[in-house]
Amino acid sequence: MLVLSRKKNESIMIGEQIEVKILAIEGEQIKIGIVAPKAVTIHRTEVFQAIQGQNKEALAMTTDVLEQLKKHK
Predict the structure, then answer these.
(1) Which residue among 16, 42, 48, 71 sits deepest, i.e. has the most Cβ atoms within 10 Å of its Cβ?
(2) Which SUPFAM superfamilies does this one have (predicted)?
């Protein structure tokens, strides 16, 4: 893990296309802005983990369930 110190209005670059900028520091909360191409998805960790969990559940679905769904059309 790379650890960097930044002040308000300073930023870091990830590659050539992603910029992470410190917008505000309020107590223990830091507001950041991310500039990235539209093709790059950006999620908070808890949202990303929820998406991954739902994807795993969908992959675990048996073909029986899919056949039942086809019958209910």
Answers:
(1) 48
(2) CsrA-like
By the 8 A CB rule, do 6 and 22 touch? yes
Amino acid at 21: K
**What pTM value is reported for the model?**
0.70
Is a pLDDT exceeding 90 seen at residue 71? no
- Domain positions in the chain: 1-37, 43-73
**Nearest-angstrom CA–CA distance, 13 and 3:** 13
CA 20 – CA 67 distance, rounded (Å): 46
Confidence of residue 30 (pLDDT cuts 50, 70, 90): very high
Q: Do 31 and 24 contact (CB within 8 A), yes or no? A: yes
